[in-house]
Amino acid sequence: MSSNSELRTEQVPLRLGVIGLGRGFMLTLPSLIADPRVHLVAACAPRESSRQAFKKEFGSPTYERVEDICADPNVEAVYVATPHQMHVDHVAIAARAGKHVLVEKPLAISLEDGIRMVEICEEAGVQLIVGPSHSFDGAVNLAHDIIQSGEVGKVRMMHALNYTDFLYRPRRPEELVTAEGGGVIFSQAVHQLDIVRLLGGGMIKTITAATGNWDPDRRTEGAYSALVCFEGGAFASLTYSGYAHFDSDVWQDWVGELGYPKDPANYGQARKALAKVSSPQEEAALKSGRTFGETPVRPAAPHHEHFGPIVVSCDDADLRITADGVWLHGHFEQKFIPAPMNAGPRAEVTTALIKAVRFNAPPSQTGRWGLATLEACHAILKSAETSSPITLAHQIQSK
């Protein structure tokens, strides 16, 4: 295909259907609205109010059943933004209907389900991409490009840490049950693992970890630290606290995870809201108030998204990843390299989906990549349980 033909093909908007109009979709929606390369042509959700709001906003058909949106001939690809435990069924339905799939992280909860999803999509001949995850962030991809250029030598060591109030934001009951994908491992460790796997080459050899399960009222993992060792000798230290009182966004110039400026005066807001809740039903209702049709859609963020402070130590420089770019600290000088901002902070995900669907050029974050990251999440849990290193078997290289 000629470059002119490729350009014309890419300029035709991707016709995207959405399965699930909850919080995950709301976080991606500002970038989808800002990006002319994608059109939201259909949606599927169990809640009638969300379906009506989508129809009013986009003038597109809505469906109650996943089978029906996947049978819509106008839908080229679907974005599966449903709760973790539903991914396996929804991806299988889409793939068997011949739809390409972007599925929210994590790929699945169990490795067995993840393997099944990958195999179904490969058998159906459809693309499966796992995201958005923070491995798509503009500054992370800039750091990856710098590393791939050879300018800074080999990656030797990475440190990533993040302190948030994750466990005290509104949650549905299953989000506090590890076996159902709750807690910080499947929702948050997946981001750090995706980032260091992308930058470190992808091939994790072993993981040694400890986890924190400290709140008797919220009985799931709220914190972890992990030592991740790669084939070739590089290693990464990962720490995350969802119990935190300290907010590590202070080290990101008070830019929040989603790329919006953060007001330090709002400190403790999540805990204050949770303190007013008297039952799991009230908390779930508070969470559903953040879904499509219940809360205003924000404009696209002015900064890239990030997942806390990350420093990558290479032979000839250290790279510090921020919400706006990468600080490169070399032998004799340091410089800041800005990451270009296009159609919102999640435009990289749209780009990856378009290239995969239109040109059969998938990114690193394929279904098999998501399976490798899911395996690493389970390794954190298993290592913490057994107090021993865990050897991994499903890893693949990054591109």
CATH fold name of the largest domain? Dihydrodipicolinate Reductase, domain 2
**Overall mean pLDDT:** 95
Number of helices: 12
Between the first and last Cα atoms, what is the distance in angstroms? 23 Å
Instruction: Tell me the number of strands.
Output: 15
Q: How much strand?
A: 15-25%
Radius of gyration from CA coordinates: 20 Å
Helical fraction equals 25-40%
CATH class annotation of the largest domain: Alpha Beta
**SSE order in H/E notation?**
HEHEHEHEHEHEHEHEEEHHEEEEHHE
Q: Characterize the largest beta sheet: strand count, sense, and whether it forms a barrel.
A: 9 strands, mixed
Question: Poorly predicted ranges (pLDDT <50, ≥5 residues)?
Answer: none
What is the SS-derived class? Answer: alpha/beta
- Corresponding CATH superfamily of the largest domain: Dihydrodipicolinate Reductase, domain 2
- The assigned CATH architecture of the largest domain is 2-Layer Sandwich
Please give the order of strands in the largest beta sheet.
Answer: 14-13-12-11-7-10-9-8-15
Q: What is the overall shape?
A: globular
